Fold:
Amino acid sequence: MTSELSTIPFIRLPLDVKHNVISNMDMIEFISLSILSKSMKVLVKLYGCKCYFFEVVIRQECFVWIKIWPNSYVFTFYQTNDEQTNFMNHNGLRIGQHQWTSTIVEHFTMRCWLKHLLFIFNFNSIGLRIESNTGNLESIINTFDGFKLEWLAFGDIGEEYTKNLLQNLPFTEIFAHRGRIDPTVYSEMTIQNMHLFCSNVNQGVTLSDILLNNSENLEVRQSILTPKELNRFLKLWMNNFSNPKLKSVLISLSEDVNRFNIDDFKNEVMSSISYQEILGQELWQHYPAWYQRFFQRIPIDGLLIQRKDGTKAAVQLCINETVLFHMVLLP
Amino acid sequence: MSVENAPVVDVDEAAIPVEKKMYYRFESNDKKEFRVSELAIQQSETLNRLVEAMGYTSEDVENKPAIAIENIDGKTLKLVFQWCEHHKGEAIPVDDGSVPKIVEIPEFDAKLMDIDNGLLFKLIWAADYLNIVQLLNVSCKKVANMAQGKTPAQLRRVYLLPSDEEDEAAKRAAQEAQDPRAREVEEEFEERKRQGGNSFF
Structure:
Protein backbone atom coordinates (compact mmCIF):
# COMPACT_ATOMS: atom_id res chain seq x y z
CA MET A 1 0.00 0.00 0.00
CA THR A 2 1.37 3.42 -0.86
CA SER A 3 0.73 6.37 1.42
CA GLU A 4 -1.04 9.35 -0.11
CA LEU A 5 1.16 12.39 -0.59
CA SER A 6 -0.33 15.83 -0.21
CA THR A 7 0.25 17.64 -3.53
CA ILE A 8 0.41 21.22 -4.78
CA PRO A 9 1.00 22.41 -8.37
CA PHE A 10 4.31 24.17 -7.68
CA ILE A 11 5.06 25.16 -11.28
CA ARG A 12 1.74 27.00 -11.54
CA LEU A 13 2.78 29.42 -8.81
CA PRO A 14 4.11 32.87 -9.89
CA LEU A 15 7.89 33.00 -10.34
CA ASP A 16 8.54 35.21 -7.31
CA VAL A 17 6.43 32.87 -5.17
CA LYS A 18 8.35 29.83 -6.43
CA HIS A 19 11.53 31.62 -5.41
CA ASN A 20 10.01 32.42 -2.02
CA VAL A 21 9.28 28.70 -1.51
CA ILE A 22 12.84 27.85 -2.57
CA SER A 23 14.24 30.43 -0.16
CA ASN A 24 12.46 28.60 2.67
CA MET A 25 14.02 25.25 1.77
CA ASP A 26 17.08 23.89 3.47
CA MET A 27 20.08 22.68 1.51
CA ILE A 28 18.84 19.10 1.03
CA GLU A 29 15.49 20.07 -0.49
CA PHE A 30 17.16 22.85 -2.45
CA ILE A 31 19.46 20.38 -4.20
CA SER A 32 16.79 17.69 -4.53
CA LEU A 33 14.59 20.16 -6.39
CA SER A 34 17.43 21.22 -8.68
CA ILE A 35 18.11 17.68 -9.90
CA LEU A 36 14.51 16.91 -10.85
CA SER A 37 14.61 18.44 -14.34
CA LYS A 38 16.43 20.98 -16.49
CA SER A 39 13.71 23.55 -15.84
CA MET A 40 13.95 23.08 -12.06
CA LYS A 41 17.74 23.38 -12.27
CA VAL A 42 17.35 26.73 -14.04
CA LEU A 43 14.62 27.84 -11.62
CA VAL A 44 16.86 27.09 -8.63
CA LYS A 45 19.77 28.92 -10.27
CA LEU A 46 17.60 31.94 -11.04
CA TYR A 47 16.63 32.17 -7.39
CA GLY A 48 20.12 33.65 -7.17
CA CYS A 49 21.65 31.83 -4.22
CA LYS A 50 25.34 32.65 -4.63
CA CYS A 51 28.18 30.94 -2.87
CA TYR A 52 31.36 32.91 -2.25
CA PHE A 53 33.67 29.98 -1.58
CA PHE A 54 33.83 26.69 -3.46
CA GLU A 55 36.66 24.34 -2.58
CA VAL A 56 37.17 20.73 -3.57
CA VAL A 57 39.42 18.84 -1.16
CA ILE A 58 41.04 15.54 -2.04
CA ARG A 59 42.30 13.50 0.91
CA GLN A 60 41.45 9.83 1.40
CA GLU A 61 38.11 10.80 -0.12
CA CYS A 62 36.87 13.79 -2.01
CA PHE A 63 34.63 16.46 -0.58
CA VAL A 64 33.32 19.88 -1.52
CA TRP A 65 33.24 22.78 0.88
CA ILE A 66 30.80 25.55 -0.03
CA LYS A 67 30.14 28.77 1.82
CA ILE A 68 26.88 30.63 1.34
CA TRP A 69 26.23 33.49 3.68
CA PRO A 70 25.76 32.88 6.61
CA ASN A 71 26.37 29.10 6.43
CA SER A 72 28.98 26.66 5.27
CA TYR A 73 28.26 23.18 3.84
CA VAL A 74 30.42 20.11 3.31
CA PHE A 75 29.35 17.60 0.64
CA THR A 76 31.20 14.29 0.45
CA PHE A 77 31.40 12.01 -2.55
CA TYR A 78 30.74 8.37 -1.77
CA GLN A 79 30.70 5.06 -3.52
CA THR A 80 27.28 4.06 -4.80
CA ASN A 81 28.25 0.48 -5.63
CA ASP A 82 30.70 -2.09 -4.28
CA GLU A 83 32.71 -2.43 -7.49
CA GLN A 84 34.33 0.99 -7.56
CA THR A 85 37.56 1.31 -5.62
CA ASN A 86 39.03 4.54 -7.05
CA PHE A 87 37.55 7.24 -4.81
CA MET A 88 37.90 9.80 -7.58
CA ASN A 89 35.23 7.85 -9.44
CA HIS A 90 32.75 8.03 -6.58
CA ASN A 91 29.51 9.27 -8.04
CA GLY A 92 27.25 9.66 -5.03
CA LEU A 93 26.92 12.90 -3.11
CA ARG A 94 25.95 13.24 0.52
CA ILE A 95 25.64 15.95 3.12
CA GLY A 96 25.59 14.82 6.73
CA GLN A 97 23.43 11.70 6.85
CA HIS A 98 21.56 12.55 3.68
CA GLN A 99 22.62 11.07 0.38
CA TRP A 100 21.11 11.48 -3.06
CA THR A 101 20.48 7.96 -4.29
CA SER A 102 17.59 8.57 -6.67
CA THR A 103 17.57 7.07 -10.17
CA ILE A 104 17.51 10.70 -11.37
CA VAL A 105 21.19 11.03 -10.46
CA GLU A 106 22.29 7.54 -11.46
CA HIS A 107 24.22 8.88 -14.44
CA PHE A 108 25.87 11.67 -12.42
CA THR A 109 29.65 11.52 -12.07
CA MET A 110 31.76 13.60 -9.68
CA ARG A 111 32.35 15.99 -12.57
CA CYS A 112 28.60 16.25 -13.24
CA TRP A 113 27.93 16.99 -9.58
CA LEU A 114 30.58 19.70 -9.48
CA LYS A 115 29.20 21.32 -12.63
CA HIS A 116 25.70 21.10 -11.20
CA LEU A 117 26.66 22.67 -7.86
CA LEU A 118 28.60 25.47 -9.54
CA PHE A 119 25.63 26.14 -11.79
CA ILE A 120 22.95 26.29 -9.11
CA PHE A 121 25.14 28.29 -6.73
CA ASN A 122 26.00 30.81 -9.44
CA PHE A 123 29.73 30.31 -9.19
CA ASN A 124 32.25 29.64 -11.93
CA SER A 125 35.51 28.58 -10.35
CA ILE A 126 36.87 25.96 -8.01
CA GLY A 127 39.60 26.08 -5.41
CA LEU A 128 41.30 22.69 -5.50
CA ARG A 129 43.20 21.37 -2.49
CA ILE A 130 45.01 18.06 -2.87
CA GLU A 131 46.34 16.72 0.42
CA SER A 132 46.89 13.07 -0.43
CA ASN A 133 48.49 11.26 -3.33
CA THR A 134 46.08 8.34 -3.19
CA GLY A 135 43.68 9.76 -5.76
CA ASN A 136 44.00 8.30 -9.24
CA LEU A 137 45.90 10.90 -11.27
CA GLU A 138 44.09 10.33 -14.52
CA SER A 139 40.72 10.61 -12.79
CA ILE A 140 41.71 13.86 -11.09
CA ILE A 141 42.91 15.32 -14.35
CA ASN A 142 39.76 14.21 -16.21
CA THR A 143 37.48 15.42 -13.43
CA PHE A 144 38.87 18.95 -13.39
CA ASP A 145 39.66 19.29 -17.08
CA GLY A 146 38.05 22.47 -18.41
CA PHE A 147 37.07 23.86 -15.01
CA LYS A 148 38.33 27.28 -14.04
CA LEU A 149 40.57 26.74 -11.02
CA GLU A 150 40.71 29.76 -8.75
CA TRP A 151 43.47 28.28 -6.68
CA LEU A 152 45.48 25.14 -6.36
CA ALA A 153 46.92 24.03 -3.05
CA PHE A 154 49.04 20.92 -2.59
CA GLY A 155 49.91 19.17 0.64
CA ASP A 156 53.02 17.02 0.96
CA ILE A 157 52.07 14.67 -1.88
CA GLY A 158 55.45 13.77 -3.36
CA GLU A 159 57.50 15.36 -6.14
CA GLU A 160 56.41 13.02 -8.93
CA TYR A 161 52.72 13.25 -8.12
CA THR A 162 52.97 17.06 -7.85
CA LYS A 163 54.81 17.23 -11.16
CA ASN A 164 52.15 15.16 -12.96
CA LEU A 165 49.35 17.27 -11.55
CA LEU A 166 51.01 20.56 -12.39
CA GLN A 167 51.65 19.44 -15.95
CA ASN A 168 48.05 18.43 -16.51
CA LEU A 169 45.74 20.59 -14.43
CA PRO A 170 44.37 23.90 -15.74
CA PHE A 171 46.38 27.06 -15.02
CA THR A 172 45.58 28.83 -11.80
CA GLU A 173 46.48 32.29 -10.55
CA ILE A 174 46.92 31.24 -6.95
CA PHE A 175 49.19 28.36 -6.07
CA ALA A 176 50.30 27.07 -2.68
CA HIS A 177 52.32 23.98 -1.78
CA ARG A 178 53.43 22.34 1.43
CA GLY A 179 55.53 19.59 -0.14
CA ARG A 180 58.76 19.85 -2.07
CA ILE A 181 58.49 20.34 -5.80
CA ASP A 182 60.95 19.05 -8.39
CA PRO A 183 63.38 22.01 -8.96
CA THR A 184 62.79 22.06 -12.73
CA VAL A 185 59.02 22.13 -12.26
CA TYR A 186 59.44 24.73 -9.52
CA SER A 187 61.37 27.02 -11.87
CA GLU A 188 58.65 26.61 -14.49
CA MET A 189 56.01 27.50 -11.93
CA THR A 190 57.77 30.60 -10.66
CA ILE A 191 58.02 32.21 -14.09
CA GLN A 192 54.24 32.08 -14.57
CA ASN A 193 52.38 35.30 -13.96
CA MET A 194 50.50 34.33 -10.85
CA HIS A 195 48.53 36.46 -8.48
CA LEU A 196 49.84 34.62 -5.45
CA PHE A 197 52.57 32.02 -5.15
CA CYS A 198 52.93 30.35 -1.77
CA SER A 199 55.75 28.00 -0.80
CA ASN A 200 55.15 26.56 2.63
CA VAL A 201 58.06 24.14 2.75
CA ASN A 202 61.82 24.21 2.82
CA GLN A 203 62.15 24.18 -0.94
CA GLY A 204 65.67 25.64 -0.85
CA VAL A 205 64.48 28.89 -2.45
CA THR A 206 67.45 31.13 -3.25
CA LEU A 207 67.66 34.86 -3.71
CA SER A 208 67.75 34.29 -7.49
CA ASP A 209 64.49 32.30 -7.26
CA ILE A 210 62.87 35.22 -5.49
CA LEU A 211 64.15 37.70 -8.02
CA LEU A 212 63.02 35.53 -10.93
CA ASN A 213 59.56 34.85 -9.57
CA ASN A 214 56.98 36.57 -11.75
CA SER A 215 54.09 36.52 -9.30
CA GLU A 216 52.46 39.63 -7.95
CA ASN A 217 52.48 38.30 -4.43
CA LEU A 218 54.99 35.87 -3.11
CA GLU A 219 55.05 33.92 0.12
CA VAL A 220 57.99 31.68 1.07
CA ARG A 221 57.92 29.77 4.33
CA GLN A 222 60.84 27.99 5.99
CA SER A 223 63.24 29.76 3.69
CA ILE A 224 66.99 29.22 3.96
CA LEU A 225 67.65 32.86 3.08
CA THR A 226 69.75 34.87 5.52
CA PRO A 227 69.10 38.44 6.76
CA LYS A 228 72.03 39.53 4.58
CA GLU A 229 70.35 38.11 1.51
CA LEU A 230 67.13 39.92 2.44
CA ASN A 231 69.22 43.09 2.63
CA ARG A 232 70.52 42.40 -0.86
CA PHE A 233 67.00 41.73 -2.07
CA LEU A 234 65.82 45.12 -0.77
CA LYS A 235 68.74 46.92 -2.38
CA LEU A 236 68.12 45.20 -5.69
CA TRP A 237 64.42 46.07 -5.49
CA MET A 238 65.29 49.72 -4.74
CA ASN A 239 67.46 49.72 -7.85
CA ASN A 240 64.74 48.18 -10.05
CA PHE A 241 66.46 44.80 -10.33
CA SER A 242 63.53 42.62 -9.37
CA ASN A 243 60.21 41.38 -10.72
CA PRO A 244 58.38 44.55 -11.83
CA LYS A 245 54.95 43.00 -11.09
CA LEU A 246 55.82 42.33 -7.48
CA LYS A 247 53.35 43.76 -4.96
CA SER A 248 54.18 41.88 -1.80
CA VAL A 249 56.70 39.39 -0.43
CA LEU A 250 56.42 37.45 2.78
CA ILE A 251 59.37 35.31 3.82
CA SER A 252 59.73 33.32 6.99
CA LEU A 253 63.26 32.22 7.79
CA SER A 254 64.05 28.78 9.09
CA GLU A 255 66.37 30.37 11.65
CA ASP A 256 66.20 29.57 15.35
CA VAL A 257 64.08 32.34 16.86
CA ASN A 258 66.01 32.16 20.13
CA ARG A 259 69.27 32.95 18.37
CA PHE A 260 67.87 36.23 17.04
CA ASN A 261 66.74 39.45 18.54
CA ILE A 262 64.64 41.92 16.59
CA ASP A 263 67.21 44.73 16.73
CA ASP A 264 69.99 42.60 15.25
CA PHE A 265 67.59 41.30 12.62
CA LYS A 266 66.52 44.84 11.72
CA ASN A 267 70.11 46.10 11.62
CA GLU A 268 71.18 43.33 9.26
CA VAL A 269 68.18 43.53 6.92
CA MET A 270 68.17 47.34 6.75
CA SER A 271 71.92 47.81 6.69
CA SER A 272 72.89 50.81 4.50
CA ILE A 273 69.26 51.39 3.52
CA SER A 274 67.58 54.66 4.32
CA TYR A 275 64.07 54.35 5.69
CA GLN A 276 61.37 56.10 7.71
CA GLU A 277 59.35 54.44 10.41
CA ILE A 278 55.59 54.10 9.81
CA LEU A 279 52.86 52.99 12.19
CA GLY A 280 51.18 49.63 11.63
CA GLN A 281 47.67 51.08 11.73
CA GLU A 282 48.61 53.58 9.06
CA LEU A 283 50.09 50.82 6.92
CA TRP A 284 47.07 48.56 7.24
CA GLN A 285 44.77 51.00 5.51
CA HIS A 286 47.07 51.08 2.49
CA TYR A 287 47.04 47.29 2.08
CA PRO A 288 44.93 45.96 -0.75
CA ALA A 289 41.52 44.55 0.24
CA TRP A 290 42.36 41.01 -0.92
CA TYR A 291 45.44 41.05 1.29
CA GLN A 292 43.51 42.06 4.37
CA ARG A 293 40.96 39.32 3.61
CA PHE A 294 43.61 36.63 3.21
CA PHE A 295 45.92 37.44 6.05
CA GLN A 296 43.97 39.35 8.67
CA ARG A 297 47.15 40.02 10.58
CA ILE A 298 47.47 42.46 13.39
CA PRO A 299 49.44 45.29 11.82
CA ILE A 300 52.93 45.87 13.14
CA ASP A 301 54.96 49.03 12.63
CA GLY A 302 56.91 49.19 9.39
CA LEU A 303 59.90 50.77 7.74
CA LEU A 304 59.17 52.90 4.71
CA ILE A 305 61.62 52.56 1.81
CA GLN A 306 61.59 54.05 -1.65
CA ARG A 307 62.60 52.73 -5.07
CA LYS A 308 64.47 54.86 -7.62
CA ASP A 309 61.25 55.47 -9.54
CA GLY A 310 59.50 56.81 -6.44
CA THR A 311 57.51 53.65 -5.62
CA LYS A 312 57.17 53.23 -1.88
CA ALA A 313 57.15 49.99 0.07
CA ALA A 314 56.80 49.10 3.71
CA VAL A 315 59.02 46.50 5.31
CA GLN A 316 57.82 44.75 8.44
CA LEU A 317 60.09 42.58 10.54
CA CYS A 318 58.89 40.38 13.30
CA ILE A 319 60.13 37.58 15.51
CA ASN A 320 57.67 35.47 17.45
CA GLU A 321 57.09 31.87 16.40
CA THR A 322 59.21 32.44 13.29
CA VAL A 323 61.53 35.08 11.93
CA LEU A 324 59.36 36.99 9.51
CA PHE A 325 60.17 39.43 6.71
CA HIS A 326 57.33 41.17 4.95
CA MET A 327 57.45 43.79 2.24
CA VAL A 328 54.40 45.34 0.63
CA LEU A 329 54.25 48.04 -2.03
CA LEU A 330 52.15 51.02 -1.12
CA PRO A 331 49.78 52.61 -3.60
CA MET B 1 -6.03 90.05 20.89
CA SER B 2 -2.97 88.45 22.37
CA VAL B 3 -2.93 84.85 23.48
CA GLU B 4 -2.64 85.94 27.11
CA ASN B 5 -5.89 87.90 26.83
CA ALA B 6 -7.94 85.10 25.13
CA PRO B 7 -10.96 83.94 27.19
CA VAL B 8 -10.54 80.71 29.11
CA VAL B 9 -13.21 78.21 28.17
CA ASP B 10 -13.94 75.07 30.11
CA VAL B 11 -13.75 72.08 27.83
CA ASP B 12 -16.09 69.14 28.16
CA GLU B 13 -13.79 66.28 27.08
CA ALA B 14 -16.69 63.93 26.39
CA ALA B 15 -17.90 66.37 23.77
CA ILE B 16 -14.71 66.06 21.69
CA PRO B 17 -15.50 63.84 18.70
CA VAL B 18 -13.39 60.64 18.91
CA GLU B 19 -11.94 59.68 15.57
CA LYS B 20 -13.82 56.58 14.43
CA LYS B 21 -12.01 53.48 13.27
CA MET B 22 -12.55 53.24 9.56
CA TYR B 23 -13.71 49.94 8.11
CA TYR B 24 -13.40 49.50 4.38
CA ARG B 25 -15.72 47.23 2.47
CA PHE B 26 -14.40 44.78 -0.10
CA GLU B 27 -16.21 42.40 -2.36
CA SER B 28 -14.91 39.10 -3.69
CA ASN B 29 -15.51 37.83 -7.22
CA ASP B 30 -18.43 35.71 -5.92
CA LYS B 31 -20.08 38.82 -4.40
CA LYS B 32 -19.19 38.19 -0.75
CA GLU B 33 -18.63 41.39 1.19
CA PHE B 34 -16.03 41.94 3.93
CA ARG B 35 -15.48 44.83 6.32
CA VAL B 36 -11.80 45.30 7.06
CA SER B 37 -10.15 47.75 9.46
CA GLU B 38 -7.84 50.42 8.15
CA LEU B 39 -4.97 49.05 10.24
CA ALA B 40 -5.44 45.51 8.93
CA ILE B 41 -5.35 46.79 5.34
CA GLN B 42 -1.85 48.13 5.96
CA GLN B 43 -0.59 44.52 5.85
CA SER B 44 -1.42 44.52 2.13
CA GLU B 45 0.69 46.90 0.10
CA THR B 46 -1.70 46.64 -2.85
CA LEU B 47 -4.87 47.41 -0.86
CA ASN B 48 -3.16 50.07 1.23
CA ARG B 49 -2.10 51.94 -1.89
CA LEU B 50 -5.54 51.50 -3.39
CA VAL B 51 -7.41 52.97 -0.41
CA GLU B 52 -4.88 55.77 -0.11
CA ALA B 53 -5.41 56.64 -3.76
CA MET B 54 -9.20 56.55 -3.31
CA GLY B 55 -9.06 58.92 -0.37
CA TYR B 56 -12.39 57.73 1.06
CA THR B 57 -13.97 59.47 4.02
CA SER B 58 -15.98 57.54 6.66
CA GLU B 59 -19.14 58.49 4.77
CA ASP B 60 -17.72 57.33 1.45
CA VAL B 61 -16.86 53.98 2.96
CA GLU B 62 -20.47 53.49 4.02
CA ASN B 63 -22.21 55.01 1.03
CA LYS B 64 -20.10 54.01 -1.93
CA PRO B 65 -20.15 50.48 -3.33
CA ALA B 66 -17.73 47.94 -1.82
CA ILE B 67 -14.31 47.83 -3.46
CA ALA B 68 -14.32 44.87 -5.83
CA ILE B 69 -11.44 42.37 -5.79
CA GLU B 70 -12.29 40.57 -8.94
CA ASN B 71 -9.80 37.73 -9.04
CA ILE B 72 -10.16 36.35 -5.51
CA ASP B 73 -13.10 34.32 -4.29
CA GLY B 74 -14.90 34.78 -0.98
CA LYS B 75 -13.49 31.72 0.73
CA THR B 76 -9.92 32.81 0.03
CA LEU B 77 -10.54 36.46 0.79
CA LYS B 78 -12.03 35.52 4.14
CA LEU B 79 -8.78 33.78 5.09
CA VAL B 80 -6.74 36.72 3.84
CA PHE B 81 -8.68 39.27 5.89
CA GLN B 82 -8.73 37.03 8.96
CA TRP B 83 -4.97 36.93 8.73
CA CYS B 84 -4.69 40.70 8.21
CA GLU B 85 -6.95 41.47 11.20
CA HIS B 86 -4.96 39.13 13.44
CA HIS B 87 -1.63 40.64 12.40
CA LYS B 88 -2.73 44.28 12.13
CA GLY B 89 -0.20 46.77 13.39
CA GLU B 90 2.72 44.35 12.99
CA ALA B 91 5.79 45.49 11.09
CA ILE B 92 6.18 44.29 7.51
CA PRO B 93 9.23 41.96 7.44
CA VAL B 94 12.27 42.80 5.33
CA ASP B 95 14.24 40.02 3.63
CA ASP B 96 17.79 39.88 5.05
CA GLY B 97 18.98 37.59 2.25
CA SER B 98 19.94 34.66 4.46
CA VAL B 99 19.59 31.17 2.99
CA PRO B 100 17.48 29.40 4.02
CA LYS B 101 15.12 32.18 4.99
CA ILE B 102 14.26 32.22 8.70
CA VAL B 103 10.46 32.07 8.85
CA GLU B 104 8.44 30.71 11.76
CA ILE B 105 4.79 29.87 11.38
CA PRO B 106 2.84 31.20 14.40
CA GLU B 107 0.10 29.03 15.88
CA PHE B 108 -2.68 31.23 14.52
CA ASP B 109 -1.23 31.07 11.00
CA ALA B 110 -0.74 27.31 11.23
CA LYS B 111 -4.43 26.88 12.16
CA LEU B 112 -5.51 29.31 9.45
CA MET B 113 -3.53 27.36 6.87
CA ASP B 114 -4.82 24.00 8.03
CA ILE B 115 -6.79 23.79 4.82
CA ASP B 116 -6.74 21.65 1.70
CA ASN B 117 -3.93 22.34 -0.75
CA GLY B 118 -6.31 23.71 -3.36
CA LEU B 119 -7.31 26.51 -1.01
CA LEU B 120 -3.71 26.97 0.15
CA PHE B 121 -2.75 27.42 -3.50
CA LYS B 122 -5.42 30.13 -3.88
CA LEU B 123 -4.33 31.76 -0.63
CA ILE B 124 -0.74 32.01 -1.90
CA TRP B 125 -1.91 33.56 -5.17
CA ALA B 126 -4.04 36.03 -3.20
CA ALA B 127 -1.18 36.93 -0.82
CA ASP B 128 1.08 37.50 -3.82
CA TYR B 129 -1.52 39.57 -5.69
CA LEU B 130 -2.35 41.68 -2.63
CA ASN B 131 1.35 41.87 -1.72
CA ILE B 132 0.99 40.69 1.88
CA VAL B 133 4.64 39.91 2.57
CA GLN B 134 4.36 37.98 5.81
CA LEU B 135 1.33 35.93 4.73
CA LEU B 136 3.23 35.03 1.59
CA ASN B 137 6.29 34.09 3.66
CA VAL B 138 4.40 31.78 5.99
CA SER B 139 2.37 30.17 3.21
CA CYS B 140 5.53 29.62 1.14
CA LYS B 141 7.19 28.17 4.24
CA LYS B 142 4.29 25.74 4.51
CA VAL B 143 4.80 24.69 0.88
CA ALA B 144 8.56 24.38 1.47
CA ASN B 145 7.88 22.21 4.54
CA MET B 146 5.95 19.82 2.32
CA ALA B 147 9.30 18.96 0.70
CA GLN B 148 11.02 18.06 3.95
CA GLY B 149 12.29 14.51 4.22
CA LYS B 150 11.13 13.63 0.72
CA THR B 151 13.20 11.75 -1.82
CA PRO B 152 13.55 13.50 -5.20
CA ALA B 153 10.95 11.13 -6.64
CA GLN B 154 8.50 11.95 -3.83
CA LEU B 155 9.27 15.63 -4.23
CA ARG B 156 8.32 15.37 -7.90
CA ARG B 157 4.97 13.89 -6.88
CA VAL B 158 4.32 16.41 -4.09
CA TYR B 159 4.99 19.40 -6.33
CA LEU B 160 3.53 17.75 -9.44
CA LEU B 161 6.74 18.48 -11.32
CA PRO B 162 7.13 17.27 -14.89
CA SER B 163 10.23 15.40 -16.02
CA ASP B 164 12.43 16.67 -18.87
CA GLU B 165 10.53 14.39 -21.26
CA GLU B 166 7.19 15.75 -20.11
CA ASP B 167 8.51 19.34 -20.38
CA GLU B 168 9.63 18.58 -23.95
CA ALA B 169 6.28 17.02 -24.83
CA ALA B 170 4.43 20.05 -23.42
CA LYS B 171 6.67 22.38 -25.43
CA ARG B 172 6.03 20.42 -28.61
CA ALA B 173 2.29 20.43 -27.95
CA ALA B 174 2.38 24.20 -27.43
CA GLN B 175 4.25 24.64 -30.71
CA GLU B 176 1.80 22.41 -32.51
CA ALA B 177 -1.08 24.37 -31.04
CA GLN B 178 0.41 27.51 -32.53
CA ASP B 179 1.00 25.94 -35.94
CA PRO B 180 -2.55 26.26 -37.34
CA ARG B 181 -2.35 30.05 -37.04
CA ALA B 182 1.07 30.08 -38.60
CA ARG B 183 -0.27 27.93 -41.41
CA GLU B 184 -3.19 30.33 -41.95
CA VAL B 185 -0.80 33.28 -42.26
CA GLU B 186 1.32 31.32 -44.67
CA GLU B 187 -1.69 30.39 -46.79
CA GLU B 188 -2.87 33.98 -46.88
CA PHE B 189 0.61 35.09 -47.93
CA GLU B 190 0.67 32.52 -50.73
CA GLU B 191 -2.80 33.55 -51.88
CA ARG B 192 -1.79 37.22 -52.11
CA LYS B 193 1.31 36.24 -54.03
CA ARG B 194 -0.84 34.33 -56.49
CA GLN B 195 -3.02 37.42 -56.88
CA GLY B 196 0.01 39.34 -58.04
CA GLY B 197 0.91 41.42 -55.01
CA ASN B 198 4.53 41.27 -53.89
CA SER B 199 3.98 42.72 -50.49
CA PHE B 200 2.15 40.97 -47.72
CA PHE B 201 0.75 44.31 -46.69
Q: What stands out?
A: The longest strand of chain A covers residues 71-78. Chain A has twelve helices and 15 strands. The two ends of chain A are 73 Å apart (CA to CA). Residues 9-47 of chain A form one domain.
